[in-house]
Amino acid sequence: MNEHTAGTATFRKLPLCLLCLALALGACVRTAPVTASLPTPEPVATPPLAVTFLPQKGDFISKYGDRVALAEITAIAKGYDYIILGEGHRNPIDHKVQQALLQALSESGDGLSLGLEMVAVDKQQELDDFCKGQVSLDTLPDELQWDERWGYDFAMFRDHFAIAKRNGVPVAGLNVPSEITRKISREGLDALTDEERALLPREIVPPSTDQKTFLNAIMALHRDRDADDPAARERFYLVQSIWDSKMAEEAVALRAKFDWPVLVVAGSGHAEYGWGIAKRIRWMEPGARVLTIVPWRGGGFDSEEGDYFFYAPDSYRSRMGMTLAGQIGGGIVVESVERGSRADRAGLRPGDLLTDASGVPLDDLYDLHTAGTKVHDADEPLVFTVRRGGDMLTVDMGKLGQAKAKPGTKTEEDTPSPEMKPDTATDPVAPAATEPALAEPAMTEHTGPTPGKEAR
Fold it and tell me: What distance in Å separates the CA atoms of residue 395 and residue 379, rounded to the nearest whole number?
């Protein structure tokens, strides 16, 4: 082949090469992955670092959210004249913490007295007889008329008395008899006899403006109370002030009698923010050193509620056959289910996280009370939204007051009474709770004559 022919052949092949190159490039373009633009995620707000660790039940916490050991709390408490321990009357963790601190403070023999909201001052002789060994621990509840007057399970308080007896701790009742405060709430102070008046505090210290605001919110939650009635509101203030003033007065007298620090065990509402007992102690004994330790349930952490805290999530044993507990971060966890119970038959299992009840988001146990009232009033079934592992499901519990039983099966849940009773904040004249509440609301603890009632 001559040079001209070779050049012509090469020129003729050029378009073919360019075509192949174009096809190759085109194939590359067609097979390249197409990346879809992803939506920008919504920013998630980071809450303030209120508590610096994930607490276990019973752990103590400082105002700054740091862990505090029992030994540290004990050493701190020994520098005070009065240690006020707040509680929820049904919460077993609260009582275990109280017993641990009572043991730690009294085992050294340095001297300690114990004052209890749960016992009225007219039962002091029975307490003294117990401390002397003349009344046994087994017969003490009858001597104190515990069930009739206080109403909460004595078993939760039994170890308080056992520790006090073992370690030589004098025990005093701090409260006004419940029948007197009920009478005041119904009829006012003028209705009291001279004997009844003698059991009141010598000075009734009125509530502060902040405490009144708090009490107004509590009263508004009562469907059986007219929050707009000025006379009813003043009686409500009066009864709260009588409780706080009397308990402060008796605590001051107890310290004067033995010259020992006084550990006061009372409902959280008498301890939080220093509005209740602490304020009255400082009024009656200027310069008194008062320490408040209150439960934190795992919701918002308000460092002003107390000087120190202990972690004790709300817990409730339902007549449906399940134990429920609040938790940090919201939701209500099913801790246990009784075999064959209504909860079991409906399909709830230990570890289930209840996130919603018939349209009411469940952040804490009081939301369950709200949901129970809602569905009972509407005559509708209670339906839980449940997170189980990575799955979401619904569980229909049926209508409150009616059992979801097998056909032909009769149970006590078939009765038309409300499914559960709330621990509602109320004055002592309030009748037994009739709302179909499912939990104890986070309100004020108080001395109530009716079992199943609790105020904060």
Answer: 17
